[in-house]
């Protein structure tokens, strides 16, 4: 999904920044360990201190700006077509489609013995959540007992199911 | 000892020299974690950065004959050239992805509306004839 693509782009950007910083720190470490120069009476180093204050601030701003952009992008609500409620239990999910009638069902994971050839182990369930494509869906997520998390990794979605709290995520499959 | 495969799970493939070689080659990560093969533009940026580092460091050494300072210049050159190539390549990559998405959606619209009054080609032809 577009949100997941943006997340991957941001990951690549932050990863490259982190790699270059690691490389620079490694080089600085090797330089310091291998130098023969010593000065036991250093009192100040204004230029160096200025550089190592301003440069990390710039790097942090360069990482923070795309991060905040994606944060607000993922929170956008684009007039959802309908709403599904998802309630976490130990250890199954209950889904409620209540917009056009009342459809409530439990979704249990299929044990490996019940899988057919080609089925995905630990992912297949007895009753799947059916979502429309190209239509914004609002998912209200909560929990009956302990903390759970509802996620679709390929769509870049992950929302915690907190007992006593209703979390919302809007996405377009 | 590996556990017996459960029903439905694919059987293990026999390791062969080619697959081992390929799997070793696929696992290459710079500094142990930078996946230059699967991140777009990473490989090119690192290679151009290395080239820039060698050129800058060696050039500095030729003019000044100072080894340590030339190494510092080389590292600085590596970082600057890598960053420059990275942003340039990612910008072009993002533009290309946008063009691909627009093309995909236009093809979908064309397939969906071909022959109807919403056909994008018909609209375009009527605009150009007017």
From TrEMBL, chain A:
It is found in: Mitochondrion inner membrane. Residues 79-173 form the Cytochrome oxidase subunit II copper A binding domain. It catalyses: 4 Fe(II)-[cytochrome c] + O2 + 8 H(+)(in) = 4 Fe(III)-[cytochrome c] + 2 H2O + 4 H(+)(out). The chain crosses the membrane at residues 13-30, 51-72. InterPro entries: CcO_II, CcO_II-like_C, Cupredoxin, Cyt_c_oxidase_su2_TM_dom, Cyt_c_oxidase_su2_TM_sf. Pfam families: COX2, COX2_TM. It is a multi-pass membrane protein. Its cofactor is Cu cation. Its main location: mitochondrion. Belongs to the cytochrome c oxidase subunit 2 family. Component of the cytochrome c oxidase, the last enzyme in the mitochondrial electron transport chain which drives oxidative phosphorylation. The respiratory chain contains 3 multisubunit complexes succinate dehydrogenase (complex II, CII), ubiquinol-cytochrome c oxidoreductase (cytochrome b-c1 complex, complex III, CIII) and cytochrome c oxidase (complex IV, CIV), that cooperate to transfer electrons derived from NADH and succinate to molecular oxygen, creating an electrochemical gradient over the inner membrane that drives transmembrane transport and the ATP synthase. PANTHER family: CYTOCHROME C OXIDASE SUBUNIT 2 (PTHR22888:SF9), CYTOCHROME C OXIDASE, SUBUNIT II (PTHR22888). This is Cytochrome c oxidase subunit 2. It comes from Macaca mulatta.
UniProtKB/TrEMBL annotation, chain B:
Keywords: Membrane, Mitochondrion, Mitochondrion inner membrane, Transmembrane, Transmembrane helix. InterPro entries: Cox20 (IPR022533). It comes from the Eukaryota. It is found in: Mitochondrion inner membrane. One of its GO terms (biological process) is mitochondrial respiratory chain complex IV assembly. GO terms for cellular component: mitochondrial inner membrane. The chain crosses the membrane at residues 46-63, 75-93. Belongs to the COX20 family. PANTHER family: CYTOCHROME C OXIDASE ASSEMBLY PROTEIN COX20, MITOCHONDRIAL (PTHR31586:SF2), CYTOCHROME C OXIDASE PROTEIN 20 (PTHR31586). This is Cytochrome c oxidase assembly protein COX20, mitochondrial. The lineage of its organism: Eukaryota, Metazoa, Chordata, Craniata, Vertebrata.
